[in-house]
């Protein structure tokens, strides 16, 4: 199997019988040599790769890990590496089937699947000649020696700023990052396997035995009920609680801002460390001054015991409650529980066998739920007179476009959640967030308020974006909100794959500068036309006319990746509209 992430809108369309398409990806091969040891964990592999490829280096590519080192990594360790592949823009990440995978299948009650896989093992991994001569088969090859790999800490504010632990104290000093660690958070979907928790709990056990205490707040978020139940049964969670840790519900929690962090509203400059996958500004607690660093669960636990980012657990000592200097030993982990995995309540409720008679009723005065109104179809004309809502500068993730945290309560109410539209994006023209110029009044205001003003006056708008626009979580709200609010087009230097598709699904124009330097030509007071829509077809560029406020005009070209089906979505007003037209 190959698993490729899609947005929720994609999933719904496929369930309704529409085809799903993908531009054929390139393949990046990562040859892992040696073996992990000591403080280094699978998390450090992907943190290292993120530093090499950056958040957009894997865009349009499948990442394939191979080599002796790959086969030595546990199945759940492989899962951590692949899970975080989204942070480098990868279409997906894969390892060939091996004994570690068979062991995990057997441990989780899937013996029959393991047996079937073992019978066709040669078909579930790369051909020998590929791995012997990778340069001939992969579009890019990276080699990493696991025996020499250091633990890494990535961040702040981006998951690809990778720093080896031996250089981290210096980086903290040189960059002026807050030295005190306020909170350490471990777990999440990325890093909460049984192996992860045993490695972290081995440090908690050391803290108990060496009379150490936490110097930072510390939370544990199990990634599933099976892991939580098994970890509780085996006493792992009790160890965390004994040193003062707090076990949270096995849910997304702090990773997406669902965390009642006291004092975050004061927006003080501070540092936290997590074993999560994303650390964009404001993501975890809504505070733009929270410096979020990403590391393995065991490294995060060690730093929480130290409470200081200049600490290096590989060589530095801690002072315990008796005033004695003690040093942490290397963490020890167990790949699979000796008593097997267990769970009592899987939390799954099966749907009705026949749902045709079910009626969805939403109260008219609800501020949490709202029935969707179909978007209007294209009127057959070119887009004329578009005002620039915002020219986003630098990183603009889906967190910047549609903030998480407390806003998630409105995910079922499109109009209410649209009040967070682009409030995290940096305005190119003033380097501020959520502060743009209203071209009709000349005044500056919040992005959603400005866009609502345009919508009320019947003025359509355009968003200008930088590189890898829309990276991060694949929330379709980041595409639905601008569409709902009256934005017609998004013109960027480059898109993150899923967000580009989500924009197309909502009937929006997702365009890319033919000349990336034309981004610099967009002025704050421009009025923009997008022409050529009547001849809109795959591979054919569209013409963009910039009407400057000084009376001058410039013509630039925009490219797109629409195919015939996606152009049909645009003309119908959205993919859902087309589904309805076709009677699906």
Largest β-sheet summary: 7 strands, mixed, barrel
Number of helices: 19
List segments where confidence is low: pLDDT < 50 over at least 5 consecutive residues: none
What's the CATH class label of the largest domain?
Alpha Beta
The CATH topology of the largest domain corresponds to Aconitase, domain 4
For the record, the CATH architecture of the largest domain stands as Alpha-Beta Barrel
- Percentage of β-strand residues: 15-25%
- Radius of gyration based on Cα positions: 25 Å
Distance between the termini: 28 Å
The total beta strand count reads 22
Helix content: 25-40%
**Total domain count:** 3
Indicate the mean pLDDT: 94
Structure classification: alpha/beta
Q: How does the overall form come out from the CA principal axes?
A: globular
Main sheet strand line-up:
14-17-18-19-22-21-20
Layout of SSEs?
Layout: H1 8-15, E1 26-33, H2 42-53, E2 61-66, H3 68-72, H4 75-83, E3 92-95, H5 99-107, H6 111-119, H7 128-132, E4 140-145, E5 152-154, E6 162-164, H8 165-175, E7 181-187, H9 194-209, E8 217-221, H10 225-233, H11 236-242, E9 246-247, E10 270-274, E11 290-294, H12 297-306, E12 318-319, E13 325-326, E14 383-391, H13 398-401, H14 414-417, E15 436-437, E16 444-445, H15 447-456, E17 461-465, H16 477-485, E18 487-492, H17 497-505, E19 509-513, E20 527-531, E21 542-547, E22 553-559, H18 564-572, H19 575-581
Parallel strand pairs: 1-2, 1-4, 2-3, 7-8, 7-10, 8-9, 10-11, 14-17, 17-18, 18-19
Antiparallel strand pairs: 5-6, 12-13, 14-20, 15-16, 19-22, 20-21, 21-22
Helix pairs in contact: 2-4, 5-6, 9-11, 9-12, 16-17, 18-19
